[in-house]
Amino acid sequence: MNKNDIAKVKDLLSSPKSIVIVPHKNPDGDAIGSTLALCSYLSKKGHDAIVIAPNDYPVFLKWLPGQDDILVYNAFAKAAKEKIQQADLIFTLDFNHLSRTGDMEETLGEANATFIMIDHHQQPGDYALITYSDTSMSSTCEMVYHFIEMLQETEHIDENMATCLYTGIMTDTGSFRFPSTTALTHNVVSALIQKGANNGSIHQNIYDTNSFSKLQLLGVALNNLKVLPEYKTAYITLTQKELDDHKFQKGDTEGFVNYGLSLEGIIFAVIFIENKSDGIIKMSLRSKGDFSVNEFARSHYEGGGHTNAAGGKSTLSMKKTVAQFIDTLASYKSVLNS
Ligand code: 5GP
Ligand code: MN
Predict the structure, then answer these.
(1) What's the pLDDT tens digit per position in 277-319?
(2) Does domain 3-207 have CATH number 2.170.150.70?
(3) Structurally, what CATH architecture does the domain formed by 215-336 represent?
(4) Distance 222 CA to ligand 2 centre (A)
(5) Is this structure's pTM higher than 0.85?
(6) Are the folds of 3-207 and 215-336 the same?
(7) b/e for 29-57, b at 16 or more Cβ within 10 A?
(8) CB-ligand 1 contact for 23 (6 Å cutoff)
(9) Ligand 2 centre and the CA of 260: distance in Å?
(10) Which of 22, 35, 121 is the pocket-test mutation for ligand 1 (most atoms within 8 Å of CB)?
């Protein structure tokens, strides 16, 4: 944010406001961690703030401080719509196009509130009065820390807020190993630990709470893993039946795609997950180096994200989706092998 934007934000927050904070649909650790931390900060400052998530979030996040107060739009649409219509300010976190909120898009589009975006994805939209967008950032959680820092208010960051922010930085950086993890990220993490974030127990809460059926599902995914050496690509499929047979819960497949990318020589990995109720195949795409899965997902799968991590969808059957994917790869052969 430039000085002008910082002054504007300070002015907007100088008197008590009704504030709604929104993560993207299918929120992950960064989306939930950043919205909860910001909500806690704004509440401390005397605002009437609430997090409204488009839909439910993974079970492994259901211990984060403050998460009980999240209003889920697709379960409580009436109450959520009222809050959005009455809001003075709407913060949108960890996404940059209102279409990323699914069914909530229309209500947000009709809102009279002033919008503030905090986000680290590429190609931001222009719906917000204040756009704090930085694609070099590891996570939106890191940006929320810098946001509070720019307001010269880091003394208000308490243990609960630090826990939420640490969680989002950890999950979005693959536990501090993706190239987006910088020295500055580690400075922020250090400050968060000083504020009381317990790194050991956060890691356990997120990564060591697997159910037996989830690990069995991982076994199925690894069994389904296919390698296309000529494209340095690996992919995994999971059908609705495979999910149902393993008591699939939201979040259970998070991270599975990374197994494809962990293969030696593989620079592009995809997981295709069937969602019969939405009638789509949801895709998670990951890459190493310069191959942009953001561009790939935007061009072929109505999606987007970052250079090395993106999402998208297909409305074809699983079989046709995979066949079409392999066809599409042919035109990327030289890029993938360069
Ligand atoms: P994931 O594969 O974990 O769902 O998402 C990877 C990254 O891509 C995240 O930063 C996520 O916000 C983004 N992403 C996932 N799905 C979509 C999508 O449909 N559209 C866009 N623009 N971004 C997405
Ligand atoms: Mn993020």
Answers:
(1) 999 999 999 999 999 999 999 999 999 999 999 999 999 999 9
(2) no
(3) Roll (3.10)
(4) 26
(5) yes
(6) no
(7) bbbbbbbbbbbbbbeebebebbbbbbbbb
(8) no
(9) 21
(10) 121
